[in-house]
C-alpha cells in the first residue's frame, strides 16, 4: 500500500482532489441574502391569496421555493465564476475563492432544482412547481447565460426571475395565476431595475472590468439616472393598484403612496447627482431605501390583508 | 493499493460535510412524513 502525499492545493500526487469545503461554503452558493427576500415575497403571495393551504404544506411550499431560488443562485455562481473572480463584490464567493469547484456547484444546483420542483409538485400542486421550474430556468439560462453578458437591459428582463416567488406562493394556494398575483409580480418586476441600477452606478467599474454590459457602462450615467426615475415612478404607481382593485384598503393605498413618493424622491436625488461623482452617496441611499421599500410594501399588503380577513376593523374579506 | 493521507483541515471539512448530508437526509425523511400526514389529513377531513 502506498501513502501519497497531500499538498496545499488539495491535490495529491496522483491528482485526486481533496476538498476542504464545508457545509457553510455550499450554503453560500445558495445566495442566502437573495433567498431571504424570496422567502419573504413568496410568503406574501401565500398570505395574500384567497383561500387556505394546510400550514404544513404552506411551510413545505416556502421551503421548496427557497431551495429552488438557492439552486438557481448556485447555477448562477457556477456559470459566472470567471467574472465573479474579478469583481470585488463577488471575489470571495466559494468558487472563485477555491473552496468549491465549478462541477460541485453545478451538481449541487441541479440536484436542489430537481428536489425543490419535485417536492413542491408532489406536496402542493404542479402549477406552482412548474412556475418554480420556469423561474430557475429563467434565472440560470435566460438571465445568467444569455441576457447578462449580451444586453444592458439584462436586469429589466432578468428581473422577472426575482418577481415570480409571490406568484408561486399565490399559485400554491389557489392553483391558478390571477390578475392579483400578476400585480405582485409587476411590483417586483418594475422595482428591480431602479434597485439594481442604483447598485450598478456605484459598482460600474467592477462591471466594466469584466465586460458585463450594465446600463451605466454602456449608456452612461445620465440615461441610467433617467431610467431609474422612470422605473421608480412606475413602481410607485403599480404599488397602489391593489387599493384601487379593492384587494387592499385605502389605508394601504395611502401608505404605499407615501413610500412610493419617497422612492421617487430618492430616485430624483440620484438624477441630480453630479456626473462622475466618486462617492455616489445618493445612489447608495437609493439602493438601501429600495430594499426597505419592498419589505415595507409587502409587509403592508400582508398586514392589511390579515386585518381585513380577521375583521379587526369590522370588515370581512 | 494507493491511499491519500488527508490533512487535518480536509478531515475536518469531510466530517462537516458528512454531518450536513446526514442532517439533510434526516430532514427529507421528516419532510416526507409531514407531507404524507398533511395530505392524508386533507383526504380524511
Automatic annotation (TrEMBL), chain A:
Keywords: Cell membrane, Heme biosynthesis, Membrane, Transferase, Transmembrane, Transmembrane helix. GO terms for cellular component: plasma membrane. The chain crosses the membrane at residues 34-53, 59-79, 100-120, 126-147, 154-173, 179-202, 223-244, 250-268, 288-307. One of its GO terms (biological process) is heme O biosynthetic process. Pfam families: UbiA. CDD domains: PT_UbiA_Cox10 (cd13957). Its EC number is 2.5.1.141. It is an enzyme of class 2 (transferase). It comes from the Bacteria. Its main location: membrane. It is a multi-pass membrane protein. GO terms for molecular function: protoheme IX farnesyltransferase activity. It is found in: Cell membrane. Belongs to the UbiA prenyltransferase family. Protoheme IX farnesyltransferase subfamily. Carbon 2 of the heme B porphyrin ring is defined according to the Fischer nomenclature. Converts heme B (protoheme IX) to heme O by substitution of the vinyl group on carbon 2 of heme B porphyrin ring with a hydroxyethyl farnesyl side group. This is Protoheme IX farnesyltransferase. It comes from Gellertiella hungarica.
UniProtKB/TrEMBL annotation, chain B:
It comes from Gellertiella hungarica. Keywords: Membrane, Transmembrane, Transmembrane helix. It comes from the Bacteria. The chain crosses the membrane at residues 20-38. This is Protoheme IX farnesyltransferase.
